[in-house]
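On clarity, I found the account of how folds are encoded harder to follow than it need be. Since the whole study asks how a given chain folds, the encoding of that fold should be made plain. For illustration, here is how one protein appears when written out as sequence plus structure tokens:
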Amino acid sequence: MTALRWPLVGRASELDRLGEIALASSRGGVVIAGPAGVGKTRLAREVLEMAARHGLETATASASESAATIPLGALSPLLPPMPHHRAPAELLRQARAAIAERGRGGRLALLVDDAHRLDDMSATVVCQLASGGDAFVIATVRSEAQAPDAVVALWKDEIAERVELRPLPVSSVEDPLNTVLGGNIDAGTLRRFTEVSGGNPMFLRELVLAACENQLLQKENGLWRLVGPLAVSSRLVEIVTARLTRLEAPERAALEHGQSDGQRRELEARGGNDRRTARCPAGAVHRPAVAGAAPLRPRLLRPRETLRDQVLALRAVRHGSR
């Protein structure tokens, strides 16, 4: 049962909406936003496949923390060799032209995964492709992460439509579990999986896989039931740990050990993505310049969608709470 294949369930309305936008000519793209593990990438790939079925050429780029240190790093797989000693404006022009050519005379469908991690130059190229009609951009961003100005401009300037993905409701959690398990799930077991996962598809999948591997899910009287405390997969521990290591020590300690409402509000007040200077640059890379302003910090805390929720749930599972 460890090779369970998870269907795309509970996202029919979002997929229909994104498909309509992709097939219309009035938008330069869509931005799929949501917390980690909510299914942004899976949904973006479905939209890309839909665009391909309607005759659009497709391309994919994935941003990462390591590539973000290199100008055009995330887009480099889509680009020919380019001398970096040239002026930024010339590099931008060449990069945009090279990617636009992949559309073979039509509009390219370009998936940019984790666009909040793009370097400034790559973000500018993506924004220009979308605003200029060269590409229909399908970008995924993490809700609580701070994105480059040019990525924020995609929805701030209404170049692309932003769609927020929320954790799955209980009704949508039941369908994928029944499908992957090949039978109906007990109501109490469903409630437990829903409470611990918070409706996060990635978290849910890892919890179910761990339960199967540890033989904690058993079929009794035609229903799948948990016969012991939920286990945590090593993969899930690695995912949450990796996210914790990106935080500063005080924030990491607060998330690991829980905090007061006042502390949470203080952290919330320190972050956000409301950049008033966000624009899609026409030439060089744009950076906001606000005299005396402190750097914006990511919004870390949102009910049922946050790393804190995952850490607290992880701790509860590891301590065998039921």
